[in-house]
Specification:
Low-confidence stretches: none
Distance between the termini: 20 Å
Shape: globular
Strand content: 35-45%
Length: 175
């Protein structure tokens, strides 16, 4: 029995992650709720963006954050080559923006966008924004870990957009 008196309805299923259990491994990872971000960068071909839920803080001193794009993504190379990028933490009302950048890297049409001094597109209306210079890229299997040194932060209050179990969700402050 759990501390709140409820019981588990099903037992945990154990398995070793591998080629035959990739779907199950992805499903298990999806049990962890994350925030939703849109990462942007300027490239010689124009601005690019990508929705990511792999964002995390790393260090307060120096101020470092990280995110982790898949190397198989068509957008990986432009982000790996970028010297600067911005992480936009999406609010509840921005699910549509997150979906746009999940599907296409050039989904800026109709959005309120400005460029910072490094040519990085900055999206308006997000809950928080971290403007970063690329500090280091670490190989991590089929993904890379991109560490960013934060140079500027902007924030506002609001409810975050959350991703869990393969879907966008609301964060219930009352629960």
């Amino acid at each position: 029995m759990m501390a709140d008196g409820s019981q588990y309805m099903t037992q945990l299923t154990s398995f070793a992650p591998g080629p035959d259990t990739q779907r199950e491994f992805r499903t298990a990872l999806g049990q962890f709720a994350t925030g939703v971000t849109v990462i942007t960068a300027g490239t010689p071909q124009g601005p690019i963006g990508m929705t990511a839920n792999s964002f995390s803080s790393i260090s307060m001193d120096p101020p470092l954050v990280m995110w982790s794009p898949a190397k198989s993504s068509r957008r990986y190379a432009p982000f790996a080559q970028a010297t600067h990028f911005a992480v936009h933490v999406m609010g509840m009302a921005q699910e549509g923006i997150a979906m746009r950048f999940a599907k296409a890297g050039d989904a800026f049409d109709g959005l309120d966008v400005t460029l910072n001094a490094h040519g990085v597109p900055l999206l308006d209306g997000c809950l928080a924004r971290f403007e970063c210079s690329t500090h280091r890229i670490v190989d991590a299997g089929d993904h890379a870990i991109i560490l960013g040194l934060v140079g500027c932060v902007a924030q506002r209050s609001g409810d975050p957009l959350v991703f869990c179990q393969g879907a966008f969700r609301a964060f219930d402050k009352e629960a």
